[in-house]
Design brief:
Blueprint (H helix, E strand, L loop, with lengths): L1 E9 L1 H12 L7 E5 L6 H13 L14 E6 L3 E7 L7 H6 L1 H7 L1 E5 L11 E8 L2 E11 L1 H4 L5 H10 L6 E5 L7 E6 L5 E6 L6 H12 L7 E5 L4 E5 L6 H7 L4 H15 L9 E2 L2 H18 L9 H12 L6 E3 L8 E2 L7 E2 L6 E3 L2 H8 L8 H15 L3 H30 L8 H12 L5 H6 L8 H8 L1
Parallel strand pairs: 2-5, 2-6, 4-5, 13-17
Antiparallel strand pairs: 1-7, 3-4, 6-7, 8-9, 9-10, 10-12, 11-12, 14-17, 15-16
Helix pairs in contact: 1-2, 1-6, 9-13, 10-11, 10-14, 11-14, 12-14, 14-15
Pfam family, one: TsaE
Keywords: ATP-binding, Cytoplasm, Magnesium, Metal-binding, Nucleotide-binding, tRNA processing
Organism: Paracoccus methylovorus
Length: 472
């Protein structure tokens, strides 16, 4: 067993806050051993955990000292078992109570675990009151690293939430993305909510810098409520669940209006010089990034050695087709999954920490050639024309650059999806490959991209057979 993390001076609220954070991440089959002397706060911890899992359906959570075991329905899809083994007369009673089976199928919290047989690979939460401050306790988390290593993050998350005044909030996991970041929604009893971003330690500075830049322009990036940048944690404004992607699915008749707003937002953004702290996504960098395609997709699709000239051609075409326009800010992942619909209020912005200085067509391509959903051809054409009319750019040059940047993005996405499937087992993205490939073919149809089409000859489309081969 390895010591994973500690909190040296937790009061009752911080203890409960840690329990609520833990409740957001544990899954069926997880066993928590709650250790500590009488009055250390074991039942207090368990009660906060159970109520957080149950939310609005929360029941009373009595101590199981006399019943030995209490069970609770879990709206997240399992059961919660809360056991107190202090009065256990013989370890065989655990089997009679059904606790052995529960530890395979439910989330199980065990007080006084030392009074029974050893638990199967538990997360041990030790609570020890401080001698000179009995209202405070030292909390330790310990367990096997392969299973419980991610728990090292929980005390830092709890400390930030507690310090920011959100310690009593329920913590719920939110859907993540293809990155290593994860998100939680915090909901207080008064109905107010916030979002906790859990990123890698020391990686949040670009997000904070871009937030400040965007908000200075009255663009609606979420307000930052509290930070622990050393730990990679941000507490931010909750813009709600009305992602543009969901609104488009539920109300497709709004599509023209929504895409007009997206294009107008880009026009507004591009009216400002990009900040000097963002990466310049120029020809050489675009070529470097598209190298993912040649490295992963052709070999996986049964065409090893093909596509090796793609990066070189991308760089050359960028110099020929895109050098006439000054770079603008590009949010890079500007699409329906990262925008929040707020009716007549400005669109909410998400996931902009990887912003770059890039050709103006880059984010327009990102919005209109969306890997996750079909965008009607007439909408794509209308938005290209809308951008050209609003900015006065040269139409022929812009359309050629749009096709090139579309091809570069789509090739890179093909490489990323292949890598995610083969190296990380994330195969769900493979279903998007045919849509990405179809957009690539439309881009390659532009006469200026003939050299790129030639460099891609012999590379098969992502047919069902090819995708099955990639998935392994």
């Amino acid at each position: 067993m390895t010591l994973l993390a500690t909190i040296d001076d937790a009061d009752a609220e911080l203890t409960a806050c840690l329990a609520r954070v833990m409740a957001a991440v544990l899954k069926p089959g997880d066993v928590v051993a709650l250790q500590g002397p009488v009055g250390a706060g074991k039942t207090h911890f368990a009660r906060a955990f159970i109520r957080a899992r149950q939310g609005e359906a929360a029941e009373e959570v009595p101590s199981p000292t006399f019943t030995l075991v209490q069970t609770y329905a879990d709206p997240l899809g399992t059961e919660i078992w809360h056991a107190d083994l202090y009065r256990l007369s013989h370890p065989d009673e655990l089997a009679e109570l059904g606790l052995d089976e529960a530890m395979r199928e439910a989330v199980v919290l065990v007080e006084w675990p030392e009074h029974g047989d050893p638990l199967p690979d538990p997360l041990t939460v030790g609570l020890e009151p401080l001698a000179d401050a009995p209202d405070l306790r030292r909390i330790t988390l310990a367990g096997s690293e392969p299973h419980w290593g991610a728990m090292t993050r929980l005390p830092a998350i709890a400390r930030l939430i507690h310090r920011a005044g959100w310690g009593s909030a329920r913590v719920l996991p939110l859907a993540g993305d293809a990155s290593s970041r994860r998100y939680f929604r915090l909901i207080r009893d008064d109905g107010h909510s916030a979002v906790l971003m859990d990123a890698s330690p020391g990686t949040t500075a670009p997000y904070v810098a871009m937030t400040q830049w965007l908000r200075a322009l009255d663009l609606h990036a979420p307000e930052i409520l509290a930070t622990d940048q050393a730990q990679g944690l941000l507490l931010i404004e909750d813009l709600g669940d009305d992602l543009v992607a969901r609104v488009l699915e539920a109300q497709p008749d709004l599509s023209p209006r929504i895409y007009d707003r997206m294009t107008d937002l880009l026009v507004q953004l591009h009216g400002h010089e990009p900040p000097d702290f963002v990466l310049r996504l120029d020809g050489p960098e675009l070529a470097h990034q598209v190298g993912l395609f040649a490295e992963y997709y052709p070999p996986a699709a049964g065409a090893p050695g093909k596509g090796t000239q793609v990066a070189e051609v991308i760089e050359r075409l960028h110099a020929e087709l895109s050098a006439d326009m000054a770079p603008v800010i590009g949010l890079r992942d500007f699409h329906a999954e990262n925008l929040v619909w707020r009716d007549d209020a400005p669109l909410g912005l998400l996931d902009f920490q990887d912003a770059v200085a890039v050709h103006p067509a880059y984010d327009l391509v990102s919005a209109l050639q969306d890997a996750r959903r079909d965008v009607a051809p007439q909408i794509e054409e209308a938005q290209i024309a809308r951008y050209i009319a609003a900015t006065g750019v040269d139409e022929a040059h812009f359309r050629a650059a749009y096709a090139l940047l579309g091809a570069q993005r789509n090739l890179r996405i093909m490489g990323i999806f292949t890598r995610l499937a083969q190296r990380e087992g994330k195969r769900r993205y493979l279903a998007m490959m045919p849509r990405v490939w179809a957009a690539l073919q439309r881009d390659l149809a532009h006469p200026a991209l003939a050299p790129l089409a030639l460099a891609l000859e012999g590379i098969p489309a992502p047919t069902p057979e090819v995708i099955e081969g990639i998935a392994g």
